[in-house]
Specification:
- The protein is an all-alpha fold.
- It contains eleven helices and no strands.
- Helix 6 crosses helix 7 and helix 7 packs across helix 9.
- The N and C termini lie far apart (64 Å).
Length: 277
């Protein structure tokens, strides 16, 4: 080796991709933990407990919050879901029809009712329908109005979901049914639609969760004390007691239903993906 020669320097190795991911994940956890600690250290828990967690006020809500408010919320949701499912099926079939006016009407309905806020639909059902048809009462009173309003809102979304499910069924299923002597209508009802519903069951269940929360808009229809749902029930008691504990309890009642339903949706989606594999 001459004086001009320099020894070879070892190459510096950087972090591997796996190490970088681990480091990034550690930083994210640290930031999250710091945010939680900062929130816990700066929040005034005494005032929060005084405003949102008064046990004596919460006890006053039972059993009515379950036997009345939660029961009405479930009834409103299920009735709206049934109306939306039936109407959505009709609109989906119109959307797939070979008759041009049917497709046009279905498309207009979907675009309008998907674009309008659900609040406006409730106001339309509660105000515009009685004005347009004087002396005409929607069957079922408030329950019928809520079912119609929620059904009109959800039908637009369900129609697109059902249409996608029908189109996801292999075309060979219809061809096989026709070769066995089924008419197009009978093949659709007996073969195609049942398979489509197995495909779209998770998104339909997710729509049920959304309807459960949208049922809180029933207060804009004007309800009696016996027709109140969770949100109205909680707001009324919060106004009476000048405390927000009833609103918190009502929110927890929503979670009692929505969390299990969300878990069911995830399980169904997982099973559907496993079936595809």
């Amino acid at each position: 080796m001459t004086d001009t020669d320099t020894p070879l320097q070892p190459k510096k190795k950087g972090l591997t991709r796996r190490q970088k991911r681990t480091l990034s994940r550690g930083v994210q956890y640290a930031v999250f933990a710091a945010a939680v600690i900062a929130f816990a250290a700066t929040a005034d828990w005494g005032r929060l407990q005084n405003q949102f967690a008064q046990a004596d006020i919460a006890k006053q809500m039972f059993p009515d919050v379950i036997t009345l408010a939660l029961k009405n919320t479930v009834l409103y949701t299920l009735s709206g879901f049934v109306v939306g499912l039936v109407l959505g099926m009709v609109i989906a079939l119109m959307r797939l029809s070979s008759v041009g006016p049917y497709r046009w009407l279905a498309g207009v309905y979907i675009e309008i009712f998907r674009g309008l806020p659900a609040l406006l639909i409730f106001i339309f059902v509660g105000v515009a329908v009685p004005l347009a048809f004087p002396g005409t009462e929607i069957p079922g009173g408030t329950y019928g109005k809520v079912a119609l309003a929620l059904g009109l809102v959800s039908a637009a979304y369900m129609a697109e979901t059902i249409r996608a499910g029908i189109q996801a069924v292999p075309k060979g299923q219809m061809e096989a049914a026709r070769s066995l002597g089924f008419s197009p209508a009978k093949a659709m009802v007996s073969i195609i639609i049942p398979q489509a519903f197995r495909i779209i069951l998770p998104p339909l269940t997710n729509e049920l969760v959304l309807l459960f929360k949208d049922s809180s808009l029933v207060l804009f229809l004007g309800v009696t004390l016996e027709e109140r749902e969770l949100s109205k029930f909680g707001r009324d008691l919060a106004s009476t007691t000048a405390n927000s504990t009833p609103i918190l309890v009502a929110g927890l009642c929503y979670l009692l239903v929505t969390i299990p339903l969300s878990f069911v949706v995830r399980r169904m989606e997982t099973k559907a993906q496993e079936a595809i594999r």
